[in-house]
Amino acid sequence: MQFDTKIAVVIRTDLEPWQKLNVAAFLASGIAAAFPECIGEPYADGSGTPYLSLIGQPILIYGADRAALSRALERSLARNVRPAVYTEEMFKTSHDAANREAVRAVARADLNLVGLAMRADRKLIDKIVDGLKFHS
After folding, report:
1. Using one digit for the tens of pLDDT, what is the confidence trace for 114-128?
2. pTM of this structure
3. Mean pLDDT in the chain?
4. Nearest alpha carbon to residue 56 among 136, 125, 119, 129
5. InterPro entries recorded for this chain (predicted)?
6. How many domains does one find in the chain?
7. Domain region containing 73
8. SS3 of 61, please?
9. Cα 64 from Cα 8, distance rounded (Å)
10. Which residues does 69 contact at the CB level (< 8 Å), separation at least 6?
Protein backbone atom coordinates (compact mmCIF):
# COMPACT_ATOMS: atom_id res chain seq x y z
CA MET A 1 0.00 0.00 0.00
CA GLN A 2 1.34 3.43 -0.89
CA PHE A 3 0.49 6.33 1.41
CA ASP A 4 0.03 9.95 0.37
CA THR A 5 2.20 10.96 3.33
CA LYS A 6 5.54 9.78 4.59
CA ILE A 7 6.96 9.73 8.11
CA ALA A 8 10.70 10.27 8.43
CA VAL A 9 12.82 10.17 11.55
CA VAL A 10 16.41 11.40 11.29
CA ILE A 11 18.80 10.31 14.05
CA ARG A 12 22.35 11.50 14.58
CA THR A 13 24.66 8.57 13.87
CA ASP A 14 27.23 9.21 16.63
CA LEU A 15 24.85 8.55 19.55
CA GLU A 16 24.98 5.59 21.91
CA PRO A 17 22.51 2.82 20.93
CA TRP A 18 20.23 3.52 23.91
CA GLN A 19 20.15 7.22 22.95
CA LYS A 20 19.15 6.43 19.36
CA LEU A 21 16.27 4.26 20.54
CA ASN A 22 15.18 6.85 23.11
CA VAL A 23 15.22 9.66 20.56
CA ALA A 24 13.32 7.61 17.96
CA ALA A 25 10.62 6.74 20.51
CA PHE A 26 10.18 10.34 21.67
CA LEU A 27 10.08 11.66 18.10
CA ALA A 28 7.52 9.05 17.00
CA SER A 29 5.31 10.15 19.89
CA GLY A 30 5.46 13.69 18.51
CA ILE A 31 4.16 12.47 15.16
CA ALA A 32 1.36 10.51 16.87
CA ALA A 33 0.35 13.55 18.93
CA ALA A 34 0.36 15.96 15.98
CA PHE A 35 -1.34 13.59 13.52
CA PRO A 36 -3.90 11.44 15.37
CA GLU A 37 -5.33 10.40 12.01
CA CYS A 38 -2.17 8.35 11.41
CA ILE A 39 -3.03 6.04 14.32
CA GLY A 40 -4.50 2.70 13.28
CA GLU A 41 -7.08 0.57 15.00
CA PRO A 42 -6.29 -1.33 18.22
CA TYR A 43 -4.75 -4.78 17.93
CA ALA A 44 -5.95 -8.07 19.38
CA ASP A 45 -4.39 -11.51 19.29
CA GLY A 46 -6.14 -14.78 18.47
CA SER A 47 -7.08 -15.21 22.13
CA GLY A 48 -8.89 -11.88 22.18
CA THR A 49 -6.27 -10.07 24.28
CA PRO A 50 -6.46 -6.38 23.38
CA TYR A 51 -3.36 -4.27 22.59
CA LEU A 52 -2.77 -0.60 21.91
CA SER A 53 -3.02 1.03 18.50
CA LEU A 54 0.13 1.87 16.54
CA ILE A 55 0.96 4.39 13.87
CA GLY A 56 -0.58 2.81 10.79
CA GLN A 57 2.12 3.55 8.23
CA PRO A 58 5.84 2.83 7.92
CA ILE A 59 8.31 5.12 9.66
CA LEU A 60 11.53 5.56 7.70
CA ILE A 61 14.60 6.09 9.87
CA TYR A 62 17.59 7.92 8.44
CA GLY A 63 21.05 8.55 9.87
CA ALA A 64 22.77 11.92 9.76
CA ASP A 65 25.64 13.90 11.19
CA ARG A 66 25.09 17.27 12.88
CA ALA A 67 25.35 19.27 9.67
CA ALA A 68 22.87 17.05 7.83
CA LEU A 69 20.40 17.27 10.72
CA SER A 70 20.58 21.07 10.62
CA ARG A 71 20.13 21.00 6.85
CA ALA A 72 17.05 18.75 7.19
CA LEU A 73 15.60 21.09 9.81
CA GLU A 74 16.02 24.11 7.54
CA ARG A 75 14.61 22.22 4.56
CA SER A 76 11.54 21.17 6.52
CA LEU A 77 10.85 24.67 7.82
CA ALA A 78 11.36 26.16 4.34
CA ARG A 79 8.62 23.81 3.12
CA ASN A 80 6.26 24.63 6.01
CA VAL A 81 6.71 21.16 7.51
CA ARG A 82 6.83 21.47 11.30
CA PRO A 83 9.15 18.80 12.73
CA ALA A 84 9.51 17.28 16.14
CA VAL A 85 13.00 17.98 17.52
CA TYR A 86 15.24 16.35 20.09
CA THR A 87 18.42 18.07 21.24
CA GLU A 88 21.43 16.72 23.08
CA GLU A 89 20.60 18.87 26.11
CA MET A 90 17.35 16.94 26.54
CA PHE A 91 19.36 13.88 27.66
CA LYS A 92 20.20 15.83 30.82
CA THR A 93 16.61 16.68 31.78
CA SER A 94 14.15 14.55 33.66
CA HIS A 95 10.71 15.75 32.53
CA ASP A 96 8.76 17.29 29.69
CA ALA A 97 8.74 20.90 30.94
CA ALA A 98 12.53 20.81 31.34
CA ASN A 99 12.86 19.42 27.81
CA ARG A 100 10.87 22.32 26.39
CA GLU A 101 12.95 24.80 28.39
CA ALA A 102 16.18 23.23 27.11
CA VAL A 103 15.04 23.80 23.53
CA ARG A 104 13.66 27.28 24.23
CA ALA A 105 17.02 28.38 25.71
CA VAL A 106 18.85 28.00 22.37
CA ALA A 107 18.42 29.86 19.08
CA ARG A 108 17.51 27.60 16.14
CA ALA A 109 20.90 28.01 14.44
CA ASP A 110 22.61 26.83 17.63
CA LEU A 111 20.42 23.81 18.41
CA ASN A 112 22.53 20.73 19.12
CA LEU A 113 20.16 18.41 17.26
CA VAL A 114 20.26 14.66 17.75
CA GLY A 115 16.97 13.91 16.02
CA LEU A 116 14.07 15.16 13.93
CA ALA A 117 10.78 13.63 12.89
CA MET A 118 8.28 14.85 10.35
CA ARG A 119 5.17 13.72 8.49
CA ALA A 120 4.10 15.37 5.27
CA ASP A 121 3.37 14.71 1.63
CA ARG A 122 5.74 12.01 0.33
CA LYS A 123 7.38 14.34 -2.19
CA LEU A 124 8.06 16.99 0.47
CA ILE A 125 9.67 14.45 2.78
CA ASP A 126 11.79 13.15 -0.09
CA LYS A 127 13.13 16.67 -0.67
CA ILE A 128 13.80 17.20 3.03
CA VAL A 129 15.77 13.96 3.47
CA ASP A 130 17.45 14.07 0.05
CA GLY A 131 20.99 12.75 0.33
CA LEU A 132 20.43 10.93 3.64
CA LYS A 133 20.77 7.17 3.93
CA PHE A 134 18.71 4.82 6.04
CA HIS A 135 20.15 4.41 9.53
CA SER A 136 22.20 1.26 9.96
Report:
1. 999 999 999 999 999
2. 0.94
3. 97
4. 119
5. DUF2000, Pep_tRNA_hydro_II_dom_sf
6. 1
7. 5-40+47-134
8. strand
9. 12
10. 10, 12, 113, 114, 115, 116
